[in-house]
Amino acid sequence: MRTAIISDIHANVYALKAVLEDIEAHEVDRVICLGDVIGYGPDPIECVDLVREHCALTLLGNHDFACRTQPVNFNFMARDAALWTQDRLDLPYPDEAAREERIRFLDSLPVRQMLDDDPRFLCVHGSSRHPTNEYVFPDDGFRAERMKPLFDRFEGICFEGHTHWPGVFVCEQLSGQDPSYSFYRGFCEEGRQGSLCGGTQTGIDRIVLRLSEGTRYIINPGSVGQPRDGDSWASWSILDQPDGETDTDPTLTFHRTNYDWMRVRERIEQYRRDGDDRLDPFLGERLGMGR
Ligand SMILES: [Fe+2]
């Protein structure tokens, strides 16, 4: 079974379409989405419809929740974007039945879900402890007091998004010893020749997940629609699970996909020119910086 894992699309339909095309070229069996389909970006309707069409499982993100209820503990920029998104979701586009379907979908998203009912594969948006809202940043990865309560809450792998930073947190425990914690940044060099965004970045592009040895992992695929690790290319992952072989461990690979972020910036600025200033121009500018 080959599963593409995407997260944090944030209503960026240009990034989402490019990633879905790339995923198709990688011949996966299914796609799962770890939430934040909407919020920040200019095309929430299109993103919800594409995710509904393509994803076998989608989790609830904090922005999805805010756009369907009310934004709480958001900064001004995120709050205004959520309120703008709520108005977009009210549009009967292309008809009332489609609007209702979209709302039904968003309101039915789970906050936590086991993949294939397998207790070794937990999916959330934030963390195993606070599935919608807790951030687990790379700097947390080596701190036992920070990571232990998170790793204690699941068996094998916890897939999570939310920070927009791709990477793998690892918890290893040799018998009779305290567990050790580490973090590896997710990195992908494939197709990067000529890219201005690669810079001096480093990390791992592939990891064997040694579940048979009792090691546990937290995996973050990064963000499709608003990367924040200094790389403007959309970030996502593939999980390869061996079929019918219990003694072979799964592997994870990190992927990046280029897309035309300037068109997204232009879409955001157009709303402002048309008299609605609730989408901050910075939401477009930051896409080019990957911040
Ligand atoms: Fe997000």
Bound molecules: fe (ii) ion
- Residue-averaged pLDDT, rounded? 94
Approximately what portion of the residues adopt beta-strand conformation?
A: 15-25%
Distance between the termini: 33 Å
Structural class: alpha/beta
Question: What is the CATH superfamily classification?
Answer: Metallo-dependent phosphatases
Strand order of the largest sheet: 3-2-1-11-12-9
The succession of helices and strands, N to C, reads EHEHEHHHEEHEEEEEEEHH
Give the total of beta strands.
12
Taking pLDDT < 50 over at least 5 consecutive residues as the criterion, the unreliable ranges are: 194-199
CATH class: Alpha Beta
CATH architecture grouping: 4-Layer Sandwich
Helical fraction = 25-40%
Task: Write down the Rg.
Answer: 19 Å
CATH topology: Purple Acid Phosphatase, chain A, domain 2
Overall, the morphology is: globular
The domain tally reads 1
Largest sheet: 6 strands, mixed
Query: How many helices does DSSP assign?
Result: 8
